[in-house]
Amino acid sequence: MDFLTTVLLLIVGGGAGVALSNVLRKRSGITDVRRESTLLLERIEKVFKVVMAEGYFSEIYNYQDQKKILYLFNDPKKAMIIAKSKVLVGFDFAKVRFRQPENGEKKLIIESFPAPEVLSIDTDYNFYDIQAGILNHFHGEDYTRILDEAKQAMNERAMQSDLPKIANNQIQYMMYQLASSMGWQLQLPEAEQQQLEALKAQAEEPIAAPKQLPIG
């Protein structure tokens, strides 16, 4: 057997072996899936953000894009997205401005306190009823824009809910209790101080004793 014949037999035998291996793998239900990921760390920042309220939201978002073909007829594409989100609302304490009286009095004066903000949104998206046009197809940037718009809508909905008010009440009363436990007085800006006084009054209201039912 000459060298060329030997090489041909090896090639044919190797090809047959690969084909047989693929057939057996398909029959056994085993698939060879390879995934690669690259993690890039851009930066690390020190933050002091406190979560004071969390809410759970569901949103149905309808997306539609109209495109005219030859200025004659519309070629729409549309999709329906159902988003379920967990929204965390709290405060960035790096924005707090405070001072202590010069006479050394145990009093913390808050000159400026930030408004509550959405600290994070953890969203699960599901796409339904995706309909592409004849020539107006969906592309990667379309899905990115849809998700960004849905997330922005969820952010606005969260800020229009009771979450900011709940977070405000929580942080004010928490700071008051913390200062009181250390023997300090807390003074907030006028509007926030009025809210705190109302919260303190509610907390100090005695709980009415249950009425006794008449016997007999």
Automatic annotation (TrEMBL):
One Pfam family matching this protein: DUF4230
Source domain of life: Bacteria
InterPro entries associated with the record: DUF4230
Protein name in the entry: DUF4230 domain-containing protein
Species lineage: Bacteria, Pseudomonadati, Bacteroidota, Cytophagia, Cytophagales
